[in-house]
Amino acid sequence: METQEPNIEETNTKKETTSDFFRKGVEDAAEKAKEYAPKFKEEIDSILSEVAYGVGFVPGFLGTFVKEILPESLSEDLKKGVAKGQENAKEVAEKMKAASKPKEEAAPVEIPV
Questions:
Q1: Range of the domain at 62
Q2: Residue 7 lies in a domain
Q3: Apex CA 24: angle with CA 16 and CA 38, to 5°?
Q4: pTM for the full model?
Q5: In a domain, 22, yes or no
Q6: In whole angstroms, how far apart are CA 90 and each of 80, 83, 94, 95?
Q7: Number of separate domains in the chain
Q8: Is 28 helix (H, G, I), strand (E, B) or coil?
């Protein structure tokens, strides 16, 4: 049996063809990305707008709805509760800040001899 040596011209043609296919694939992908990017961006903008609307709508609706259905006396109690909760939260925050500050070193205690 005789071993055949590869034909160098055929090998170069295959390499060029593979490179050409790769380059063509990159060019086609870039072209499609440029074509679809504005449409994709428009859809993302639309979705984000709807989410932002929903985020604003829900608390506005719930706040107004609760305010309208609750009796005035209960509404006043809720306001008092919120105010007291804020007051307590500030106190706790101040205590936490004070606890996290580094302690000053105490002066050495002199022991009489």
A1: 12-99
A2: no
A3: 165
A4: 0.38
A5: yes
A6: 16, 11, 6, 9
A7: 1
A8: helix
Secondary structure letter of residue 71 according to DSSP: -
Residue 40 CB contacts under 8 Å (≥ 6 apart), including other chains: none
DSSP annotation of 7: P
One-letter identity of residue 74? L
Segment (H or E) for 3? none
HSE-CB for 10 with a 13 A CA cutoff: 3
pLDDT per 10-residue tile (average), the chain, 113 residues? 58 69 91 91 92 92 85 80 91 85 68 70
Listed in sequence order, the residues at least 6 apart from 78 whose beta carbon sits closer than 8 Å to its beta carbon are 70
Q: CB–CB of 52/44 below 8 Å?
A: no
Whether residue 78 contacts residue 70, with contact meaning beta carbons closer than 8 Å, is answered with yes
For residue 82, being part of any structural domain is answered with yes
d(CA 11, CA 65): 77
Spatial CB neighbours of 27, under 8 Å, sequence gap ≥ 6: none
Residue pair 30/38 in contact by the 8 Å Cβ criterion: no
Chain Cα centroid distance, residue 100: 30
Q: For residue 112, tell me if it sits in a domain.
A: no
